[in-house]
Specification:
By secondary structure, this protein is α+β, with helices and mostly antiparallel strands. The protein contains three helices and eight strands; from the N terminus they run βαββαβββαββ. A four-stranded mixed β-sheet has the order 1-4-6-2, sandwiched between helices. A four-stranded antiparallel β-sheet has the order 5-3-7-8. Strand 7 and strand 8 form a beta hairpin. The longest helix has 18 residues.
């Protein structure tokens, strides 16, 4: 399995963890972004749709991993993001950091998801229970 991928099918977090794990890693931290059933303002959501410029997104994932490697020696990073229609409860993004120690794993995972949300060319459209929909700008 590649460490970075844009997927149309369900994300398997355990497979991602296995792809970054080595015997040198004493810590694995995984972040899962899950489709929730309402907006921050309380509007009911029935699902999301994601689109991505795949080549650019994968290049950004690799750049993020390189930055993580410069900050934390020995960290292995995996990033998976879904595209297409997703239902409430489905995993839309997974970031996994494996490192010799927990602090580096936590810091790498947090840095990676924040950088991804700020920089990756991935767009989200919310579908509302009342029948409307809207493209959403990432809030950092």
């Amino acid at each position: 399995m590649a460490l970075f991928a844009i997927l149309r099918d369900a994300i398997d977090p355990r497979a991602l963890e296995a792809s970054v794990r080595t015997d040198a890693c004493g810590a694995i931290v995984t972040f899962l972004g899950v489709v929730r059933g309402s907006t921050s303002e309380g509007r009911s959501i029935v699902g999301l749709e994601y689109e991505a410029h795949e080549a650019m997104a994968l290049a950004e994932f690799a750049a993020i991993a390189s930055e993580v490697g410069e900050r934390h020696t020995g960290v292995r990073l995996g990033i998976l993001h879904r595209v297409g229609a997703l239902n409430v409860g489905e995993v839309s993004v997974a970031v996994c950091a494996a490192a010799p120690h927990r602090r580096e794993a936590f810091e790498a995972c947090e840095y990676a998801i924040e950088a991804l949300k700020a920089r990756a060319p991935i767009w989200k459209k919310e579908a509302y229970a009342d029948g409307g929909d809207a493209w959403i700008v990432n809030k950092l």
